[in-house]
Design goal:
CATH superfamily of the largest domain: Periplasmic binding protein-like II
Number of strands: 10
Helix content: 40-55%
CATH class of the largest domain: Alpha Beta
Largest sheet: 5 strands, mixed
Number of domains: 2
Number of helices: 17
Strand order of the largest sheet: 7-6-8-5-9
Strand content: 15-25%
CATH architecture of the largest domain: 3-Layer(aba) Sandwich
Radius of gyration: 20 Å
Length: about 375
């Protein structure tokens, strides 16, 4: 299929990076109560939704233009495209490469895109406050407690060896890197919740805004004492003996949704196509989860590693070593965490114009996801 081939070629042209871009600040409202993760995991057979009849000729397919950033979070889109899941739903998925979220949301607002990843940051909320026609529908990445975080707090090995680290309270007095602009990020939003548990705020920290790729060298040479790092950079620092991860983002704020899939209003209103996309996306997410969890066998896991390596530019050994992102196999984002960051950024003055009440009421697309789940079934969120 020509559209899928174009999407795959665009994917291969992308360079590895991280989808997290944000703007937010320090003092946060009261921390929400943690949500306990489910204990069980889906079986490989349950992890796949049944195929549906689909058009076979390209002219019968509906093109969906998806903004694609580089990184392993794009796995469900690429996997669904390569497996033909979207085509089976009558969709020609065109993955359009973008360098940053700041370029994607305006393209959605002007009708050049049909869907974009919407990170939990001030840029997203400012766009929503300006009535950008979008629905927040699907989970992209949610950080679960217990080691299922591909973003985490890492401490320099020399700090650990000197006995200067026992817990979050010891961040006071240490230099801490957070991806730019530092306090104004979703990473900082999640960290602020954890800090409240020890009576601290972001104002108590010495924060150094530093891009993720630069953190490994900085923590190795002692320019920083700690960092809220992302994969693969955190694993590289550990492999070099320079740092050790101590707390995942999902342990700072359990079940923290850092990004959602935003549907243009026009796409969401096209119910059969929007529903078909959700169905195909969930098939891909469930196959991904079953593979990386080892539920569908070693061969399936290696195939997934290969797909991630091809899509990100990482070597296969690195892919095997890193913590891969968690995606909700039922597709539902944690709305509470998304709204928490909205208020967090509002309190810092980074979202000056509030989202109108009517806009907020109509913002969520969970009804569409639940409709699909009623048909294909829900699985445990491992």
């Amino acid at each position: 299929m020509g559209g899928r081939s174009q999407g795959a070629n665009r994917w291969r042209a992308m360079v590895w990076g991280v989808i997290l871009t944000t703007l937010g600040a320090c003092a946060a409202p009261a921390a929400p109560a943690p949500v306990a993760p489910a204990a069980s995991t889906p079986t490989a057979s349950a992890a796949r939704a049944a195929p549906t009849a689909a058009p076979t000729s390209p002219e019968e397919l509906t093109k969906i233009r998806l903004a694609a950033l580089n990184g392993s979070s794009n796995v469900p889109f690429r996997l669904g495209d390569e497996r033909g899941y979207f085509a089976q739903e009558g969709i020609d998925l065109d993955m359009v490469a973008f360098a940053s979220n700041s370029e994607m949301i305006p393209a959605l607002a002007t009708g050049q895109l049909d869907m974009v990843p919407m990170p939990s940051n001030p840029a997203t909320w400012n766009a929503i406050a300006r009535n950008t026609p979008v629905k927040l529908v699907l989970d992209v990445i949610t950080y679960r407690p217990g080691g299922l975080s591909d973003q985490m707090l890492s401490i320099r090995k020399a700090v650990l060896d000197a006995g200067r680290w026992h817990g979050l309270a010891d961040l006071r007095g240490l230099s801490l890197a957070i991806t730019p602009p530092g306090k104004g990020t979703a990473s900082a939003c999640a960290l602020s919740v954890a800090l409240q548990q020890v009576g601290m705020t972001l104002d108590d920290l010495d924060i150094e805004p530093l891009p993720f790729p630069e953190m490994t060298a900085a923590i190795t040479n002692g320019a920083i004492d700690a960092g809220v790092m992302a994969e693969p950079f955190a694993t590289r620092a550990e492999q070099q003996g320079s740092a050790q991860r101590v707390l995942g983002l999902g342990d700072m704020y359990p079940n923290f949704t850092i990004s959602t899939v935003g549907f243009a209003d026009a796409l969401y209103a096209n119910h059969p196509v929007a529903k078909g996309f959700v169905r195909a996306y969930l098939r891909a997410v469930r196959e991904y989860r079953a593979a990386v969890n080892g539920q569908s066998g070693d061969a399936a896991r290696e195939q997934m590693y290969d797909l991630i390596a091809r899509g990100t530019g990482m070597d296969i050994a690195t892919v095997r070593a890193i913590t891969l992102p968690y995606m909700n196999p039922n597709g539902l984002p944690n709305r509470e965490s998304v709204l928490y960051c909205y208020q967090f950024f509002r309190d810092q003055g980074l979202v000056p114009q509030p989202v109108p009440e009517a806009t907020m009421r109509n913002l969520w697309g969970a009804d569409l996801v639940n409709e699909v789940l009623d048909e294909i079934g829900r699985v445990p969120e491992n």
